[in-house]
């Protein structure tokens, strides 16, 4: 909700995984909001939504913008998305992508079962 900070950091797209965070707060930011995914099991069942979020990041970057993914603690759902993005677009394994993310977010603990399901559905074949 810090508009000044979002602008300062060039954030143009936000992916919200928190049931309590506000969405569509600033008209110039493109939001993608998932307020009903609270567990790794639910996220795994909705792996198609994870791919939509990955593509939301890709669209932001293609347009010269920056995306921010966030969830309540900033270590599970939001990180699962960033790792999935790196798996798809940087062609990294989930382990390699997590190593990259943990350089700036040491507390990162993505949902491995979700990443495995994502890999099997979107990256194999």
Estimate nothing, just give the exact number of structural domains: 1
Q: Into which percentage range does the β-strand content fall?
A: 5-15%
Low-confidence stretches: none
The ordered H/E elements are HEEHHEHHH
Task: Output the structural class.
Answer: alpha/beta
Question: Can you count the helices?
Answer: 6
CATH topology title: Protein-Tyrosine Phosphatase, Chain A
CATH class descriptor: Alpha Beta
Any idea what the CATH superfamily is called?
Protein tyrosine phosphatase superfamily
Shape by Cα distribution:
globular
Distance between the termini: 40 Å
Radius of gyration: 14 Å
Q: Please tally the β strands and state the result.
A: 3
Which architecture would the CATH scheme give at its second level?
A: Alpha-Beta Complex
Family: Belongs to the protein-tyrosine phosphatase family. Non-receptor class dual specificity subfamily.
Pfam family, one: DSPc
Keywords: Hydrolase, Protein phosphatase
EC number: 3.1.3.48
